[in-house]
Amino acid sequence: MDVAIFSAKPYDRQFLAAANEGRHQLAFIEARLSDETVRFAGGADCICAFVNDQVTAPVIAELAAAGTKLIALRSAGFNHVDLAAAEAAGMTVGRVPAYSPHAVAEHAVALILTLNRNTHRAFNRVREGNFALEGLLGFDLCGKTVGVVGTGLIGSTFAGIMRGFGCRVIASDPYPSDECAALGVTYVPLERLFAEADILSLQCPLTPDTHHLIDDRAIGLMKRGVMIVNTSRGAVVDASAVIRGLKSGVIGGLALDVYEEEADLFFEDLSQKAIQDDVFARLLTFPNVLITGHQAFFTREALSGIARTTIDNITAYEDTGRVLHPVTAPR
Ligand code: NAI
């Protein structure tokens, strides 16, 4: 099949070309998919999209009119796709439901350890010959309560790691997992989770239910000094509300790998440009905020898993008219 791959970075080329083994004709397009760039697909049988590509109804209509039949997402999340429009246009959508959950879970842990023990600040201090410890004080993770919102593949992997640190892990999920319960994770209602967590980790998908789950009301229920970690999707957190929580001191630490308006920021080198997003710029000013640019998935194992499943979805569609991992509009 002809495949137009949007938002293609050099690492996408490397891993997708290796997984493809010459089977499909891959065209790599650096641009992000949007109303303006959709024409670059050029009537390809399949377009391959990543998390900040805009797979909106007008984009889908234009793709369908040009003959595209398949949308192969190289992500687990599919909140950026208008599934109803895809279905109405008769297009199939496939995704990569599982690829090294360790990549994201371990990144969440890296953020917690860095933010807690200030290793990022220590690194800079020591390079400048400053060996003072003031401002670097952390806390023992052992014995603390970690609240996990969403215990799917990533959340349950994360819960297991935190159990290994000796944490008490509580969780909230409409579909509790037996695997997590076996790890000693206790399921509690969301409000209790907010009230008891010393560290709150968001591992749920972005849905209408989880949009701005962390808002002023939720923050109002939390322990003073709570650490919030978001590696799920930016819009699960109301960024203006967490700024208020940071200013009041209720939030003692905030680690974000995702941000609601990240599409205009992340995955690009903007170091020579003025950041236009004032909310994001304000977040960067807090000493207890740590932000990474949607890199939680970024391990060799995850990239090769993503590439393999993406190519397998495309091959299955070519062979049988169905992808291995379809995404359909909710009924
Ligand atoms: P999954 O589908 O295995 O698990 C999601 C879990 O969230 C499920 O158990 C589901 O029941 C639960 N859930 C749904 N609505 C909920 C709600 N209202 N409250 C609490 N729990 C709820 O998905 P997986 O693989 O664990 O990924 C989770 C999310 O992580 C993805 O949807 C994606 O948005 C994000 N992600 C972020 C990456 C990054 O690089 N930062 C990479 C991969 C995924």
Structure commentary:
By secondary structure, the chain is α/β, with parallel strands linked by helices. The protein has 2 domains: 126 residues, 3-Layer(aba) Sandwich (Rossmann fold); 191 residues, NAD(P)-binding Rossmann-like Domain (Rossmann fold, 3-Layer(aba) Sandwich). The chain contains 12 helices and 12 strands. Strands 8-7-6-9-10-11-12 form a 7-stranded parallel sheet, with helices on both faces. A 5-stranded parallel sheet has the order 2-1-3-4-5. It is globular, with a radius of gyration of 21 Å. The model has no long low-confidence stretch (mean pLDDT 97). Bound molecules: 1,4-dihydronicotinamide adenine dinucleotide. 1,4-dihydronicotinamide adenine dinucleotide (NAI) binds next to helix 4 and helix 6.
Helices and strands, with pairings:
Blueprint: E1 2-5, H1 10-20, E2 25-28, E3 46-49, H2 57-66, E4 70-73, H3 83-88, E5 92-94, H4 101-117, H5 119-127, E6 145-149, H6 153-164, E7 168-172, H7 178-182, E8 186-187, H8 190-196, E9 199-202, H9 216-221, E10 226-230, H10 239-248, E11 251-256, H11 278-283, E12 289-291, H12 300-320
Parallel strand pairs: 1-2, 1-3, 3-4, 4-5, 6-7, 6-9, 7-8, 9-10, 10-11, 11-12
Helix pairs in contact: 1-12, 4-6
1,4-dihydronicotinamide adenine dinucleotide (NAI) binds next to helix 4 and helix 6.
Domain D-isomer specific 2-hydroxyacid dehydrogenase catalytic: 3-327
Protein name: D-lactate dehydrogenase
Family: Belongs to the D-isomer specific 2-hydroxyacid dehydrogenase family.
